[in-house]
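Blinded run. Sample ID left blank on purpose so nobody reads anything into the name before looking at the predicted structure. Input follows.
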Amino acid sequence: MFAENDEIIRNFLRKASIKQFEDPEVQTRLNISVEMIKLIAGNPSDWDRKCPFNINHIGDTFISDLRDFGAGQNINYEVNSIFVLSYRFLCEYDFNRRTPGSYPIELASLKSRILEQIDSFDGNLRSQMIYASYVMPSEIIQEYLLNPNVVAFKNFEQTMVEATKLHENWSNEFALKEARITELKNKLDEYQTGFNFVGLHKGFSKLENKKTSESNALRNLLLFLGFLILLPICSELYFVFSKILSGEVMDLNHFIFLIPLISLEIILIYFFRVVLLNYRSVKAQILQIQLRQTLCEFIQSYAEYSSEIKEKDKEALNKFENLIFSGVLSDPEKLPSTFDGLEQIAALIKNIKSNS
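Blinded prediction complete.
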């Protein structure tokens, strides 16, 4: 306030310095008022910071009196008003000083001169001076105590207790939420692992279906070859029995006629054997695939259990992994080659020719 109205304050000081009164008491009050206002003009920002109470209550009135000084009819009243208001600012400034030990000489001397004259003041002026000296400080303190910031500070302990309880509640709730999140994470990890093994199981199922179709085709081929093998035998038996029933004698020529049938029979048996071994190989592969599907159902629990064992033995899962992820074996070494049995057929033909 004072810094903003510095020009008004200086104009008042110029007018007051040339003003003279016949009444010595009025002149003395004006002179003291000038001294107080000079202190304000010397550092207006500092007085703004240290006089918030009176700035709030009488600030506008004080500036108005300084601006209108000498323009009214009752100049004595103006001097008394400026004197009282200036003294109120002086008392508040003195009350709010942050370094009580360093008491300014001008301020101390000025305040002492005012207090020495307090008994000579009339009733209203004297009561105003007593109020500023003794009552106003208590009102300043009361206003400070009722300030929301001070009230908040007084309630700090209670607020601290409430904040501690709130922090504990938040901590407990956070711990519960964290435990719940951890539980959900573990479940999601289990679901993810489960879905991975479901995908692996599904892959094995597709492979099993493919091998099953292959097995069915081989079985049908076996049945067909079996039928072809039995057909020459049945035809030969029919031919022999028909000759016997007709009374004909079976000679060597009839047996030579059987050689092509026997050769065909041997060839059919050979291919039957090849298809049979392939069929057995496919069935073995299906069995291995089904074994892998079964292992996929408990691999997760097995892996969790083996994690503890692997701390002691790093090779704990090797056999399991080799079994699961190894190729499906068909045991090709046991399959007959294309020319198996040809030597026996050639030897049989030679024996027949030598006998003939």
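Unblinding after everyone has recorded impressions. Residues 197-355 form one domain.
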